[in-house]
């Protein structure tokens, strides 16, 4: 187990950044991808600045993570720049603060969606639960989605907490 702590902005401009053995990556700055590739491995990337907003941005349209945690008391993490999709090979966890979908019209989650006290601002986009094993929408707080699609054809997606869909629910 390796922990990588980043206090500033991470900028990928070319080549590949491989999480390798880093299972925990914490960042207090922005995550900017302008043409590189991030290979997330089994890592959890935690955005945790409590003093400033943070962004997942850059010119690359799709940003891929394994697990993503938002732990930003009193602050916001938003998708911006050319980001049109976030792909999570694992779980999204909202612990504190706000996660604003921003320019990400598609958020694809192959693991669980867990809200333990954060706020999700969905914009007009769609969250798709697209794993190949059992998935859950859970946590101690309800989440509001604009559009929610369940496309897990190999297993079930269950809900252990209330959630709201103001647009379209597709199963």
Task: Describe the overall structure.
With 171 residues, this protein is mostly beta strands. It has no helices and 22 strands. It has strands spanning 2-6, 10-12, 16-18, 22-27, 31-33, 37-39, 44-47, 54-57, 62-65, 67-79, 85-88, 92-100, 106-109, 113-115, 119-121, 126-129, 135-138, 143-145, 147-150, 157-159, 163-165, 169-170. Strands 1, 2, 4, 5, 7, 8, 10, 12, 14, 15, 17 and 20 form a 12-stranded parallel β-sheet that branches. It has a 6-stranded parallel β-sheet with strand order 9-11-13-16-19-22, with no helix packed on it. It has a two-stranded parallel ribbon with strand order 3-6. The model has no long low-confidence stretch (mean pLDDT 96).
Q: Count of DSSP E strands?
A: 22
Oligomer: single chain
The profile of the biggest β sheet is: 12 strands, parallel
Mean pLDDT: 96
In terms of DSSP E residues, the strand content is over 45%
- What is the overall shape? globular
Radius of gyration: 15 Å
Number of helices: 0
CA-CA gap between termini: 37 Å
What is the percent of helical residues? under 10%
């Amino acid at each position: 187990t390796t922990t990588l702590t980043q206090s500033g902005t991470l900028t990928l401009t070319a080549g590949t950044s491989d999480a390798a053995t880093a299972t925990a990556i914490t960042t207090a700055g922005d995550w900017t991808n302008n043409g590189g590739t991030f290979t997330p491995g089994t890592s959890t990337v935690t955005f945790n600045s409590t003093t400033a907003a943070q962004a997942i941005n850059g010119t690359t349209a799709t940003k891929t993570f394994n697990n993503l945690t938002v732990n930003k008391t009193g602050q916001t993490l938003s998708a911006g720049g050319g980001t049109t999709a976030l792909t999570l090979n694992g779980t999204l966890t909202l612990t504190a603060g706000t996660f604003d979908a921003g320019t990400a019209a598609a958020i694809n989650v192959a693991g669980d969606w867990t809200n333990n006290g954060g706020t999700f601002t969905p914009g007009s986009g769609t969250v798709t639960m697209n794993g190949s094993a059992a998935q859950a929408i859970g946590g101690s707080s309800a989440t509001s989605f604009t559009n929610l699609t369940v496309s897990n054809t190999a297993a079930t997606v269950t809900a252990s907490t209330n959630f709201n869909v103001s647009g379209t629910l597709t199963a």
